[in-house]
Amino acid sequence: MADTSKRTRYFLRYLAAFCVPVLCITTLLLFFDYRNQISATQSRGIGQLQQMAANIDYLETKIHSTTLHMSGNDRLTSLDTTSFDPATYTSNRIFGLLHSYENNLPSGVTMLYYLRGGQYIYSNEKFFSYNDFIASSDYEAALGRADLYLMLNSVQEKTLIGLDSYDGSEAYCTALYCPIPEIDDAPEATVCFLLRDAFFQDVVEQYFPRMEACAVVTDGHQLVFNGAASLYTAEQAVELLEKNPGSGVMRLAVSEKPFIFLRERSANSDYNYGVLIPEEIFFQNTEQKFGLLSLLVCVMLLFSIAAAMFLAYSHYISVYRANERIDSVSEELGARNQLIREMVLRRLVKGTIENDDEAVLAYNLRCAGLDFAHPYFAVFVCDWKDLTLSEDAITNAIGALNRLRNDCVAMYPAQIPEDDRLAVILNFRQAEQDQNAIAAEICAALKEQGIAGYAAGMGLVYGSPFQIDDSYVEALVAISEAMPLLPCGAHIFSTAEKLDEQSYQYPYAEYALIEQSIRNGNSGVAVDAIRHVVERIDKIGASPLIRKCLHFDLINMIIKVAATSRHPLSNAEIAQLSSWESKDALTQQLEGILRRLAEQAKSENAESQKSAKFALIDYVQTNFRDNALTLETLATHFNLSYTYVSKVFKEETGHTFLSYLTQLRFQYIKKQLESTDTPIKEIAAAAGYNDLTNFMRKFKNAEGITPGQYRTGHQA
Predict the structure, then answer these.
(1) Which residues contact 594 (CB under 8 A, 6 or more apart)?
(2) N or C: which terminus of the chain has fewer CB atoms within 10 Å of its end residue's CB?
(3) Is 70 exceeded by the pLDDT of residue 589?
């Protein structure tokens, strides 16, 4: 459950790290892109409207140009309307001229040419008298009902009529009347241009294809074309453009349906243009692009989620493995700390910490993480050398004792494996403690671990950690001498013996000091220690038999030291020691033996050091061409310290290791340069220099010349 929670937290963390920036960035991108797309779409719509307006303006310009051309054509303006016969003009040049004007107009525009004096009209490539025209099939009743034909005889200036205001006119939307000539007060003729709805519809479809666009065109006051008749009346359409003059884009709602209204004012005419397009159609392309971008964002989010899941899993695995390594290191450190703790506890028990050296004691306690909270000390010993206990059983026993809690005493168990004993240092709050209760707790804890049948003893309580070893010795004496039993079954040291307990102190510390001083070749420390031990034995207020036993114990210790140093005493020396007659004679004999053993150890140490030095230098002289040879690798190879190896080279050769190595390599290189033609690069590589530039610089600094110059000067 905890692992799942961790993975979930990692996933959410990475998901936030990936998705939040992606969402923020993509939201901004979507916003700016959508806004840009809308702006671009609106600009494009205005551009299309401007093109449509230009197309219609071109028609108006063309119509105006045609009118001017007619007004300036003498053949039209000088016609004798009183003698004009339509039948005779059908195939003449005048008819062809009108026909050419008509053909020059777009297909959506119809031209009517009316001769006022004779009341003749030209329509659809034919001349009619007005009465015949009314009776012909070219006559359009809707225009007649609107009196548009009658206006041919009355207009005096250019006039535009919007036909949406005349009922029944479906084919045409606008009529444009122009007198011929335009500048004459009594024009001879009138030309009328009829603009069809189809023309405007085609233009709108051309520039707004498949957009259901509805166009509105006015000349400022009148309606020219109303393609939005289903939405607005003629008056409403004119009003819409008058209220919103100039170029622009706006949103309109017509019958609750949203529209985009594009508007433009012609720069070449008086026309105003407007186009209504349903909003969803107008922004259709924009929405498609927005949809594609949204899909891309979704893909990015899915990728972010997948990446977050992958990173979360990877992070979890790495953290899990790191935690495993941390746990492993912690276990190892814990084991090492436990070893240090046990070592310090053993030193306290064995008394190998020099008496009254508070600094050494504090250092040892700090290394072991020990902090004695109480001022009084004693030792409880479990001797199970007659039992067969597994290492696990002993470990479990120590763990059980470590778990004991008592406000009056702290317990520190330590295994003494060489003696098959368990020593428990007791740190009492008060000097007067119920020792039986404490011993009973220890015995009960051991019994819970299935350990029984051991011998137990407890020493006296002392007020200094330097006397822990005294209490330990007393506990051993209590066991070996079968001193009185406590109710829990442990022996307790008693002062009922004839020994003077105030001065008696078993010399474990001196024994250890003597042994270590011999190994180090320090005869002075060994002699001082042996004298101190002999004096202590002599001062003990005990029987001569006990003092003699202690002297023989001291002799046995010296015999063991000699044996362990690989220089055992001869039978004659042992016999001489065994037959000593006085304390002074014994002291002199022991001092002589210790001096000899120390000198021998010192000599062996020196020889060993000399052998090690020779091996170091010989190894470098043999392997100097190895480019991996460094002071560090050399120290590692011989299992020596970096400092010691550096010191050896300085003392034995007078040079640092690097200087000595460089000398050996340069000697080899110079010999090769003098006797061979091998390329310098190969010689340098064979000598351990892979960097030719670095070698050239070093060689010139050392010899004053380059390797090439050296070869030239030393080869015949």
Answers:
(1) 514, 518, 523, 526, 527, 530, 558
(2) C
(3) yes
Cβ atoms 334, 402 nearer than 8 A? no
* Distance between CA atoms of residues 675 and 240, nearest Å: 109
Query: Strand order in 172-180's β-sheet?
Result: 126-129, 120-123, 109-115, 189-196, 172-180, 159-162
102 Cβ contact partners less than 8 Å away, ≥ 6 residues apart: 111, 125
- Is residue 500 over pLDDT 50? no
Segments in 72-196 forming alpha helices (H): 74-77, 93-103, 130-135, 141-145
Amino acid (1-letter code) at residue 59 = L
Owner of token pair 């022996």: 491
* CA nearest to 567, candidates 518, 516, 498: 518
pTM of the model: 0.42
Q: How confident is the model at residue 243 (pLDDT cuts 50, 70, 90)?
A: confident
At residue 336, the pLDDT reads 65
What is the per-residue DSSP string for 385-416?
TTS---HHHHHHHHHHHHT---SSEEEEEEEE
List the structure tokens of 708. Answer: 């090439």
In three-state secondary structure terms, 120 is strand
Query: Which region among 274-278, 288-292, 405-409 has the lowest average model confidence (pLDDT)?
Result: 288-292
For 155-204, what is each residue's pLDDT tens digit?
888 888 887 655 445 578 888 889 888 776 778 888 999 888 888 888 88
Torsion angle of alpha carbons 698, 703, 705, 706, nearest 10°? -40
Total residue length of the chain: 716
Residue 555 · residue 577 · CB < 8 Å: yes
What is the spatial distance between Cα 210 and Cα 282, in angstroms, rounded to a whole number?
10
What sign does the dihedral 464-465-466-471 (CA atoms) show?
positive
